[in-house]
Amino acid sequence: MSVDVKYTAHASATGGRDGHARTDDGSIDVKLTTPKELGGAGGDGNNPEQLFAMGYSACFIGAMKFVSSQGGPKVPSDVSVAADVGIGPRSAGGFGLAVTLNVSLPGLDKAEGEKLVEEAHKICPYSNSVRGNVEVTTVIV
């Protein structure tokens, strides 16, 4: 399957989980720290799972807005998505992720919200990228 790329983000990291990451334009510049739960020192800084959670949350809202623009249910102006991204050993070896997307759609009927989330999950680039490799659960809160 090919992708007709319309935009490419550029970022780099040094030092791994206890290093530094930044976008090429400097708009995001973060210190990276390994969480205590993964054997690190924790402390000030971010980790890749946090950055992924922020990106997935924002992208999923964009996917819902796209579905809405194509005749789907209207997205409330105060929509929010909180992503929980877990990391740990996989039973098949190596490490894996598990994601829960907690979607808040104030004022939207539950059935309409479920339809919106289901359709957004089909087209969201993050959802499509991890489908079949990462367990993703969507919850309307």
Order of helices and strands: EEEHEEHHE
Instruction: Count all strands and give the number.
Output: 6
Q: Characterize the biggest β-sheet.
A: 3 strands, antiparallel
Percentage of residues in DSSP E strands: 25-35%
The Rg value, from CA coordinates, equals 17 Å
Distance between the termini: 34 Å
What best-fitting shape do the alpha-carbon axes yield? globular
Please, how many helices? Answer: 3
**Mean pLDDT level:** 96
Question: SSE layout and pairings?
Answer:
Elements: E1 11-14, E2 20-23, E3 29-31, H1 48-69, E4 80-89, E5 95-104, H2 110-123, H3 125-130, E6 135-140
Description:
- The protein contains three helices and six strands.
- With 141 residues, the protein is an alpha+beta fold.
- The strands form two sheets. The chain has a three-stranded antiparallel sheet with strand order 1-2-3, with no helix packed on it. Strands 4-5-6 form a three-stranded mixed sheet, covered by helices on one side.
- The protein starts with 10 loop residues before the first strand and ends with a strand.
- The model has no long low-confidence stretch (mean pLDDT 96).
Which features characterize this protein?
three-stranded antiparallel beta sheet, three-stranded mixed beta sheet, alpha+beta, 141 residues, 6 strands
